[in-house]
Amino acid sequence: MAITINIYYSGKNGNAVKFAKEMISSGLVDTIRREKGNLRYDYFLPMDDSETVLLIDGWKDQAALDAHHGLPLMEKISTLREKYNLRMRVERYVTDESAPESDKAFIRK
Asked: Which of the residues 16, 34, 83, 85 has the least number of beta carbons within 10 Å of its own beta carbon?
């Protein structure tokens, strides 16, 4: 059961993009990607909202996510969020391995 967390960071004056760039340049993103159980940690820019950045954060299971949340680097991330005065909207999804065959007709590989 994989867990995917979508985090929408929103701010003003390009602060969400500045935050994501600093997360990358500081090495925090690479550190997170090397954590045991991390499946994905990628930033995206919504085409209809220049003041928001979407983080897609994937984990093998809840134990891996809990371990991530318990690390000291979470304080660094929180400090950066405060620095850029970001708001967050969070969506959480659990992988459904039982998608019906009828869904496959709409997936182009």
From this structure: 34
